[in-house]
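Observation: inputs received (chain + manganese (II) ion).
Thought: call the complex predictor directly.
Action: predict_structure
Action Input:
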Amino acid sequence: MPKKHRDRDVIDKILHVLSASDRWLVLMHEKPDGDTAGCATALSSLGVRIGKDVTLGCPEPYPSKYLFMLRDIPHKVLESVPPDFAGDGCVVISMDTSNPERAVKKMHEAKERCVVINIDHHADNAMYGDINWVEPSASATGEMVTDLMASSEWGISPEEATALYVAIITDNGNFSFPSSSSRSHECAVLLMEAGAAPGLINEELETNLSVHAIRLWGRAFGRARVFAGGRCAIFWLARSDFDETGASKHDTENLINFLLRVRGVKLAGLCTETENGVRVNLRARFPMNAQKIAARFGGGGHVLASGCTIRKPLDGAISSLTAEMERHVSTGISGS
Ligand SMILES: [Mn+2]
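Observation:
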């Protein structure tokens, strides 16, 4: 059984501060994903609903893919915590953000002026808040915010339930990643009872491809090559593929994940020709380490998902990458 990971004391403390504060600044992290956006949107919506002065802040524009959750909630692109955000009654809530470098700037200065609440599930969280609630066993920060809001006197509206459901499923791969637990499903039950509709949410998230993207993907799929005894696979896209299909550079999002679905493939790479060299997306299955390959070309990321840029013509970049991938699967099983 997964651990029942909820700290009631800290939840009560957070609810007390939220209740006592009139101005809420709810923050998302850089390169916002569904988890940070869903949590920040749900909490902001709650604040608006109970009459607080709420700002939803993000270091970048709110991601267009998730705009359906946002509705009329006031949101701003924020470089840093505004200097006038100070004094009693002001609270900053940072969502799904492991360290202040990933948030808007001046978080440390903000801490001297008001209460900073840090709600997150990353094990390496830097504990930068006045109140730190970090639960690494949660598959998404969305699970924690579901518990927080469900424990409050204010409850969860159908729109907030939708945003939290998005937070959870985008971070745990529709309950498919090892991080998914019985708790994740319990949260889903609670959110569905509060009005989240998985069918409609799936339609918003999954049925939004352009025909240009599909044509682009078709070109990449047609070039898929498996090597190193079936353990590695690559495909590639040239600049002309984008011009000829009418696709944009954003249309490669998630494309690489398909290559990792080929039976036996443990390490997958997508090479995309750009004006500044060849962009490489890498995906790995344990015990392969995509990060180590990316690092060989000056890139980085996570162990199972990384990226880099190879400053060579497309042909040369593909050869260098395949050689490095081959070397990794023959020597890198122990993660070296
Ligand atoms: Mn997350």
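Thought: report the result.
Final Answer: Residues 227 and 233 are 6 Å apart (CA to CA). The first strand starts at residue 23 and ends at 27.
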